[in-house]
Design brief:
The protein is 0% helix and 6% strand. Strand 1 and strand 2 form a beta hairpin. It has one domain: Pectate Lyase C-like. It is built from no helices and four strands. It is mostly loops. The strands form two sheets. The chain has a two-stranded antiparallel sheet.
């Protein structure tokens, strides 16, 4: 049994010895303490991780459809090939996070800090991108941007 500790006191019990591939759909994980946890392949669709701490966590191949990630601290977290469609990511800290191959189609990322993040082959056709901080974020020619958005002017760097 794993206990996900939430600063609200509403801790969540998860059966098993790992969070890899776990289903946490629609769970209230407000202010969860998940720094460094491995949630590879987990389903967090519809979950609320508002103000959660997921710094350095692994969410590769995770499903986060319509997940509330408002004001989350996800610095240096991994979202490689994750599905973040329509996620609410406003005001989050994603400094140095890896979103390579991730889909953020329709996600709301306004006022989030993606400084130094990696977006190789990512779909960034999201909402509020012009309000986000992209200083020193990296992308490649396979990265998809919203029509008319200039990533270089926003501070991102094209890499090969």
């Amino acid at each position: 049994m794993i206990e996900i500790v939430c600063e609200t006191g509403d801790n969540v019990q998860v059966a098993g010895e790992s969070l890899i591939g776990v289903s946490l759909e629609n769970q209230n994980l407000h202010r969860a303490m998940l720094d460094g946890f491995n949630l590879k392949g987990a389903n967090l669709s519809g979950a609320s991780l508002r103000s959660a701490w997921i710094e350095g966590a692994t969410l590769d191949e995770a499903t986060l459809l319509k997940t509330n990630l408002a004001a989350v601290n996800a610095s240096n977290a991994r979202f490689v090939n994750a599905n973040l469609e329509e996620a609410f990511m406003r005001s989050g800290i994603y400094q140095g996070a890896n979103f390579d191959g991730a889909c953020l189609l329709g996600a709301n990322v306004g006022r989030s800090d993606f400084s130094g993040a990696s977006f190789r082959s990512s779909d960034l056709r999201c909402v509020g991108l012009s309000e986000a901080i992209l200083t020193d974020a990296i992308f490649d020619v396979a990265t998809t941007w919203p029509d008319g958005f200039d990533p270089i002017a926003a501070g991102a760097k094209l890499v090969s």
